[in-house]
Write a structure and sequence with these properties.
The protein has 437 residues and is of the alpha/beta class. It has three domains: 208 residues, 2-enoyl-CoA Hydratase, Chain A, domain 1, CATH 3.90.226.10; 132 residues, no CATH class; 59 residues, OB fold (Dihydrolipoamide Acetyltransferase, E2P) (Beta Barrel), CATH 2.40.50. 50% of the residues lie in helices and 19% in strands. A six-stranded parallel sheet has the order 8-5-3-2-1-11, with helices on both faces. A hairpin with a 6-residue loop joins strand 12 and strand 13. The chain is elongated.
Length: 437
C-alpha cells in the first residue's frame, strides 16, 4: 500500500514538473533575426520572404530585420513591402550596425515594419526616385513616381503623427536624410537601440498592430535565432555586384572567342556560356547602359583583326581603349548610384590584361610564320643528301631515309655517285639538285 501511494505521489510530482516546464517554455519567446545588407535586389527579396515564411512555420513570436542598404529597385522594394505587411508575425526593422543607412528604398522598407528602430550613428532617408539607369526622370514621370511613393509612405507613417509624416514625405520630395536621433524626435521610428539585446529589452510590453489585431510583445525572455542566407541567395546577391558581372562578361566573351578560334575543345566554350549566362542575370538587374555593349564588341573585333592584320599592335591598342570606354559606358553612366558602379581601376586592369593576352597570341602567330616548314615536300628545299647514281642530267639521290628521283639544276655540272648534293627545288616527285662543293 505504501509503495502504491509513493508511486501515485511520484506521478503527481512529475506531472507538476512537466506543467511548470511547459509554462516556463511558453514564457520564452522565439525571435528570428534576418540580416539584409547591400542594395535592394531580388536576392534580398527572396531572403526576406523565406525568413518570414520560416517564422510562421516555426511559430516565432517576432522577426527582427537588421537592415543596411543604400537603396535599390522600387519594384523589388514594393514586393518586400507587400511581404512584410502580409506577415502574421510582427516584423521589427532595425537599421544597424553603427554607420548603417536605410537609404532610398531602405526608407520604405523601414517604415513597412510593424516596429522601426535604429542604432546610434545611423541614417535614414534620401528616397527620391530615379530611373532604371540611375538617371533623373523626366518631369511627368518624376511627378507620377514621387506621388505614388509619397502615397505609400503616407500610408505607413500617418499613424506616427504629422511631424513624422512631414519628414517621410521630405525624404522623397527633397531627398532629405535624417539621423537616428532626428527620426526618433519626430516619431518616424520607435526606438534607438545599441544592439539586438537592447532592442529586445525596449520592445518588451510594446503594442503593435498586426493586421486587425493588436498584440503586446513579450521579449524579456527571448531566444534569438539568426536565419543565414542560402547558397542560392548568396550567389544571386554576388551576381548583382557590378564588378563581378564585369569580370564574368569579360571572361565569357574571351572564352567564346577561344572556342571559335580553335573549335573542338568544349572546355572554353562551356566556361564562356556559363559566365555569359551568369552575367546576363546581373545585367538584367543592374541599371546598365546597353550602348556600352557596342564598344565592348568593337574591342574584341579589333583584337581578333590584329591577329590577322599586318598592323601588329595598333588595333590591339585601339581595342584596349574601346574596351575601357565600353565598360565605363555600360556600368558608370551619369546618374548611376555609386554602389552600382564598376571599379575604374578594375576596368583599366582588365583592359590591359585582355590586350596583353591578345598581344601574346599575335606574338605566337608571328613566330609561327617564321618557323621553317617541317613537313611535306617543301621541307626538302635546302636539305642535303647523297647521289645514289650518276646524275647527268637525271638520276637518284637519298635525302634523309628516302630515295628520290633527281635532276640537275640548270647550269650545274654532272654529279657522280656518292657526291653530296643540295636540294634547290621540288617539282612534283622530282628533286632539282646541285653538287655541294
Amino acid at each position: 500500500m505504501k509503495r502504491f501511494i509513493v508511486a501515485i505521489l511520484t506521478l503527481i510530482a512529475l506531472a507538476g514538473f512537466s506543467l511548470l516546464s511547459a509554462n516556463a517554455q511558453s514564457d520564452v519567446s522565439r525571435v528570428l533575426v534576418l540580416k539584409a545588407e547591400g542594395p535592394v535586389t531580388p536576392a534580398m527579396r527572396e531572403y526576406i520572404a523565406r525568413g518570414l515564411k520560416l517564422a510562421e512555420q516555426r511559430d516565432a513570436d517576432l522577426v527582427i530585420l537588421q537592415l543596411n542598404t543604400p537603396g535599390g529597385d522600387l519594384g523589388t522594394t514594393q514586393n518586400i513591402f507587400t511581404e512584410m505587411r502580409a506577415s502574421q508575425v510582427p516584423v521589427v526593422v532595425y537599421v544597424a550596425p553603427r554607420g548603417a543607412w536605410a537609404g532610398s528604398a531602405g526608407t520604405i522598407i523601414t517604415l513597412a515594419g510593424h516596429v522601426a528602430a535604429m542604432a546610434p550613428e545611423t541614417a535614414i532617408g534620401a528616397a527620391s526616385p530615379v530611373g532604371l539607369q540611375g538617371e533623373d526622370l523626366n518631369q511627368v514621370l518624376e511627378t507620377k513616381t514621387k506621388e505614388i511613393t509619397k502615397a505609400t509612405v503616407r500610408s505607413l507613417a500617418e499613424r506616427r503623427g504629422p511631424a513624422a509624416l512631414a519628414l517621410a514625405e521630405a525624404t522623397i520630395e527633397t531627398a532629405k536624410a535624417a539621423s537616428a536621433t532626428e527620426a526618433l524626435e519626430v516619431g518616424l521610428i520607435d526606438f534607438i537601440a545599441t544592439d539586438i539585446n537592447d532592442l529586445l529589452r525596449q520592445l518588451d510590453g510594446f503594442e503593435v498592430q498586426v493586421g486587425e489585431q493588436t498584440r503586446t510583445l513579450r521579449t524579456a525572455n527571448s531566444v534569438t535565432e539568426e536565419v543565414a542566407p542560402s547558397f542560392i541567395e548568396q550567389l544571386l546577391a554576388m551576381l548583382v555586384n557590378p564588378n563581378i558581372v564585369f569580370l564574368l562578361l569579360t571572361i565569357g566573351v574571351q572564352a567564346i572567342f577561344i572556342e571559335l578560334s580553335s573549335p573542338g575543345g568544349w572546355v572554353a566554350g562551356f566556361i564562356g556560356v556559363v559566365c555569359l549566362a551568369l552575367a546576363a542575370y546581373g545585367l538584367g538587374v543592374l541599371p546598365v547602359n546597353w550602348f556600352g555593349i557596342a564598344f565592348l564588341a568593337i574591342a574584341f573585333v579589333l583584337f581578333i583583326l590584329d591577329i590577322k592584320a599586318p598592323t601588329h599592335g595598333a588595333l590591339t591598342a585601339a581595342g584596349i581603349g574601346s574596351f575601357i570606354v565600353g565598360a565605363l559606358v555600360l556600368f558608370n553612366s551619369p546618374g548611376t548610384p555609386q554602389f552600382q558602379r564598376v571599379s575604374v581601376p578594375l576596368v583599366i586592369l582588365m583592359g590591359l590584361l585582355t590586350g596583353l593576352g591578345f598581344a601574346v597570341i599575335i606574338g605566337f602567330a608571328l613566330r609561327a610564320q617564321k618557323v621553317p616548314i617541317r613537313t611535306g615536300q617543301e621541307s626538302l628545299v635546302h636539305k642535303t643528301g647523297t647521289a645514289k647514281t650518276r646524275i647527268d642530267p637525271q638520276g637518284q639521290v637519298q635525302v634523309g631515309s628516302e630515295l628520290w628521283s633527281a635532276e640537275l639544276a640548270e647550269g650545274s655540272a654532272p654529279i657522280r655517285k656518292g657526291d653530296v648534293v643540295e636540294v634547290l627545288d621540288v617539282k612534283g616527285l622530282r628533286l632539282i639538285v646541285r653538287k655541294v662543293e
